[in-house]
């Protein structure tokens, strides 16, 4: 089944992506190099609308024309709008309306980016049971504004895969997601969650009338491990970043690069159901 490709590493995380890609970079050229890597991925034969229905992008990639490229391929674009997290796991303050106005520019007079962006993404981190409510409250209130701009919000309250109380946090997250989904009834969201310790814990959310899609992040799991966990859950697809790019390196030939990316894409697509 088709999934969402997360290719939205920001200025702060781009360095680690390029290091895994085994490409040298400087602060001055790292965004040029990460864009070239993304183009190499997007131009790979199996990066197509048969396997991928959406891609999450960073604003720099949007400004370089990626939305138009993906639109021509039949792939929807999501814009990462947040500016990272506070130590508490809550979203840092960021110019919400400015980012949404950027995402919805449509005419030459206002500097249109061309094809329409479908939605947005915000990532928070759940570090304790007491913070689950605060994380969701912040995410849903911003999501309400996003929906007023005609965009589909991806809500991402990530639970770290190595958290010692991961299962307990997931139980509380599931409970409060139901509360917030029943409270904010005027718009739909996509939920992007960490694969749970208990398979199908979130299954009822996949059929909730306010949930457009439920997708799992890879969260640092290897491609195989992330896909194994994904495959244990029904009616869930992927939105992988690190697991999607695993094994890709700058010095690979185009054939080697395409073969590896094709393997990752097909593995993720097969695990999505």
What would you note in describing this structure?
There is one protein chain. By secondary structure, the chain is an alpha/beta fold. The protein has helices spanning 14-20, 30-42, 59-63, 66-73, 96-103, 132-148, 166-183, 203-206, 223-231, 242-245, 254-271, and strands at 3-7, 52-57, 76-80, 119-125, 152-158, 189-193, 211-216, 237-240. Strands 1-2-3-4-5-6-7-8 form an 8-stranded parallel beta barrel. Helix 8 (203-206) links the parallel strand 6 (189-193) and strand 7 (211-216). Helix 6 (132-148) packs parallel to helix 7 (166-183) and helix 9 packs parallel to helix 11. The longest helix has 18 residues, at 166-183.
User: What's the story with the biggest beta sheet?
Assistant: 8 strands, parallel, barrel
Give the CA-based shape: globular
Distance between the termini: 6 Å
Number of helices: 11
Query: Total number of β-strand segments?
Result: 8
How would you state the average pLDDT, rounded? Answer: 95
As a whole number of angstroms, the C-alpha radius of gyration is 18 Å
Structural class: alpha/beta
What low-confidence regions span 5 or more consecutive residues with pLDDT below 50? none
**Main sheet: strand order:** 1-2-3-4-5-6-7-8
Helix content: 40-55%
Strand content: 15-25%
Helix-strand sequence? EHHEHHEHEHEHEHEHEHH
Concise account of the structure shown:
The chain is built from 11 helices and 8 strands.
């Amino acid at each position: 089944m088709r999934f969402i490709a997360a290719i939205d590493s920001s200025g702060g995380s781009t360095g680690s992506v390029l290091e895994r890609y085994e490409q040298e970079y400087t602060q001055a050229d790292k965004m040029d190099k990460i864009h070239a890597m993304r183009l190499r991925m997007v131009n790979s034969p199996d990066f197509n609308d048969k396997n991928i229905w959406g891609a999450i992008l960073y604003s720099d990639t949007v400004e370089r024309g990626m939305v138009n490229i993906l639109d021509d391929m039949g792939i929807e674009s999501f814009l990462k709008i947040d500016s990272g997290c506070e130590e508490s796991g809550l979203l840092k303050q960021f110019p919400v309306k400015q980012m949404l106005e950027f995402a919805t520019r449509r005419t030459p007079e206002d500097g249109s980016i061309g094809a329409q962006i479908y939605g947005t993404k915000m990532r928070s981190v759940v570090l304790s049971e007491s913070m689950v409510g605060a994380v969701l409250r912040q995410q849903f209130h911003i999501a309400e504004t996003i929906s007023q701009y005609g965009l589909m919000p991806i809500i991402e309250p990530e639970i770290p895969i190595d958290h010692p109380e991961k299962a307990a946090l997931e139980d509380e997250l599931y409970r409060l997601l139901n509360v917030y989904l029943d409270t904010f009834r005027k718009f739909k969201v996509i939920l992007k969650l960490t694969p749970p310790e208990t398979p199908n814990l979130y299954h009822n959310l996949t059929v909730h009338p306010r949930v457009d899609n439920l997708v799992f992040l890879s969260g640092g799991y290897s491609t195989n491990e992330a896909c194994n966990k994904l495959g244990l859950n029904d009616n869930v697809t992927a939105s992988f970043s690190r697991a999607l790019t695993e094994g890709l390196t700058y010095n690979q030939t185009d054939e080697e690069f395409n073969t590896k990316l094709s393997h990752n894409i097909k593995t993720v697509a097969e695990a999505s159901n």
